[in-house]
Every structure is written in C-alpha cells, then in structure tokens.
Write a structure and sequence with these properties.
By secondary structure, the protein is mainly β. The chain has a domain of about 160 residues. Helix content is about 5%, strand content about 35%. It has a 6-stranded antiparallel β-sheet, with no helix packed on it. A 4-stranded antiparallel β-sheet has the order 6-7-2-9, with no helix packed on it. The protein has a two-stranded antiparallel sheet with strand order 10-11. A hairpin with an 8-residue loop joins strand 6 and strand 7. Keywords: Signal.
Length: about 260
C-alpha cells in the first residue's frame, strides 16, 4: 500500500511542524565571570512582548558540585513583561529555590529590574553571582547577555531615548542582595496578592512585616519612629478597635476606644 502526500498537505504539515517546534523550550548555558563576592548584571530579552504575553525564562544549576564542590544548586523561574517606555502592565515575578551547605556562596540572585523606563529595548536585568556557570531556557528563544567586565564591559548602560532631562543609567555589580528578594520562594513584582479561597490559607514558616529575616511566627518591624523616645509605629489600630492575646491559661483582652 502506498501513501501519496499531496503538495498542499505537505506544506501544511511542514508549517505545523515548524510552528510547533519554534516555540519549544531552548536550553542554553552561559558563564558569569568576575569574582564570587559580586553579583553581575545579566540582560535578558522580553521576546513575548509583541505576542501580547508575559515572557518566561528559567535559570538553573541542578548539580550542586558544578564549578566546585558544594558550590550550590539553583532552580529559578522569572515571569515578566516590560513597560517599554511607558506602556505599563509591567511586572517581574520570581520563583527562586537554591541550596548550598557553604553559606558564603549559597545565594546566586541579588536583584532584578525592568531596564526599559526610558527606552523600548524589551529587556530586564538580573544580577547573578560571579565566577559561576548557569543554564537557562525560554519559550521564545530569549537571549542572555552578560556584563561582568570580561564577557562584556562594565557598567551596562541602559538605553536612553534622547529626551530632554533624561540621563543614562549605568548598572554595575552588586555586593549584597536587595531587600525585596525572597531568596527561597516567590517575589511578586507588582500589585497585591489576595487569597479568596473559602478554605484555609496558611504560611508554614515565619512571617515578617518590615523585615526580611523574621525570627518568630510573626515579627513586625516598628518604623518609623513616632515618639520622642524613638518608639517605632509597629501596629496601628483604627478607632474603637480591640486586641486579644491568647497565652494559653492566661488570656488578655485590650479594648481601645479613646475619645479625642
């Protein structure tokens, strides 16, 4: 039995095949040179912008011994959409999981930013630890360009459209991790997270408000100072509010109903 594939059907088959594989995940490797104690800017493209979608990239190091013994592992996903000079709907969300039993080298990502405030370059910057190799994949074949003083010179100059009053924005290495970075978990780039489930919502670890290193189930950092004694304004209750402290056998109820 013989099958004959007509020219029209052949073209349709080829178009379907290449269209499907054009959007497949593409994995690439790159190395950030420099030194271990610094995090260097790596520029990633926003290739899904004109598809009216959010771009997604994954950065990983599955082997904890890659580069050196117990150097560390990293699995991170970034989902983002750049503003491109004022279009809005912009955000960068990060989901980071990393491990090392060598504390000094255990974290690989120090921060990120949308680098299109004064341009339409379709790029974000992620600061990655130096002297380290990485893999990354993306849905639409995004590119990663490293600025570490070796692969490309520092600083990286964010593109600036020639507008009166705007200046260039040089971006160089970081020596510490930015406060907004959740080093093992999710960081949402914009908006407020609402949990509207009718079930139970819970957090398994410690919760910090105003602090990134909570040491209790709930720790609230009191700021700013609002008395001459320097007390921090940690909790503010509106008019006629109350508070219940349940300490087991002892329960303390506080009613605040102060009149002006």
């Amino acid at each position: 039995m013989k099958f004959i594939l007509l020219p029209g059907l052949l073209l349709a088959f080829m178009a379907c095949f290449f269209s499907e594989h054009a959007s497949a995940q593409v994995t690439k490797s790159f190395t950030v040179y420099g030194t271990l104690d610094k995090f260097y800017p790596v520029v990633f493209t926003d290739s899904a912008w004109w598809r009216h979608e959010a771009s997604e990239i994954q950065i990983g190091r599955s082997d904890v011994h890659r580069d050196s013994s117990w150097r560390g592992s990293l699995i991170a996903k970034f989902r983002y959409h750049t503003t491109n000079w004022g279009n809005g709907s912009s955000f960068i969300d990060a989901d980071i999981h990393q491990y090392s039993n060598v504390p000094d080298n255990s974290k690989f990502i120090a921060g990120w930013r949308d680098a299109t405030a004064n341009n339409s370059a379709f790029i974000i910057i992620i600061w990655l630890r130096g002297n380290t190799s990485y893999y990354f994949s993306s849905r639409y074949n995004d590119r990663a360009t490293v600025y570490d003083g070796v692969t490309n010179p520092l600083p990286f100059e964010e593109p600036v459209i020639n507008v009166p009053g705007t200046t260039s924005r040089p971006q160089t290495f970081k020596t510490s991790i930015d406060s907004y970075v959740n080093m093992n978990g999710n960081t949402f780039g914009s908006g407020t997270v609402y949990y509207n489930s009718s079930g139970t919502n819970f957090f398994g670890g410690n919760i910090g408000v105003g602090t990134t290193t909570p040491t209790a189930k709930l720790e609230i950092s009191g700021a700013p100072s609002w008395t001459s004694a320097g007390w921090g304004k940690a909790i503010k209750l509106g008019r006629a509010q109350s508070m219940l402290l349940d300490a087991g056998r002892n329960t303390h109820f506080f009613l605040f109903n102060l009149q002006p």
